[in-house]
Design brief:
By secondary structure, this protein is of the alpha+beta class. The protein has 7 helices and 5 strands, in the order H-H-E-E-E-E-H-E-H-H-H-H. It is globular and about 65 Å long. The C terminus is likely disordered.
Length: 248
Amino acid sequence: MRSDSDLFTYGYRFKPWRGPSIAAGEAILAYLDEVIEEDDLGKHIRYQHRVTSASWSSEDRRWSVEVTRDDTGERLRFTTSFLWMCQGYYNHTKPYRPDWPGLDRFGGILVHPQNWPDDLDLTGKRVIVIGSGATAATLIPAIAKQAGHVTMLQRSPTYFYAAATTHALAEQLAPLDLPDEWMHEIMRRQHTSEQQQLARASFEAPDELHALLMESIRPLLPEGFDIEKHLTPRYRPLAAAHRDRPRR
């Protein structure tokens, strides 16, 4: 597990991020643990408490939240006048899985990344990963180290840019030993500027941006690899609305 966006943007302003722009899950978890410890937030957090329902009472003008403790099985009820829900838009208990015809006859192992089993051993196995988004981009290089063969099944290839985990500007500034707050703000603005330039180019010069992205991956592939056939997206960069339109 790792980030797929720079952490100078995602880091807290009051707690400057000090690591590389792209980091693994362990580093992100350590960062969050530091925030909890330094700001004494632990006493306000209830771990292993799974919310099973939330209901609003117009008469009492309060929320009632039903909770089950995963460690003890105890059921609790909390009431509050303000409820802030930050669970995202996924169903974490039952992630979406298409009902493909013939799935009942499939004799292999079917795994959803949302419910990845800890004891899954892919050593020497033939694996198909359905999809080509951020999850697949993180998953495939990791399982390819142990699996016998990995196939990515996709409707269209995705645009990728193989950037280093450390930013060139951060490496240039490192010898100056700047305060963490300065470094964080400089790098946050740098990444924001780069994203704005990328978005602008996708509208003003999509063909040139397409060529730049495709040529950037050519040196990373074996000589003679058919990029046009296997890695050319059927849509313009950053333009999901053009996904099903052929390129000019």
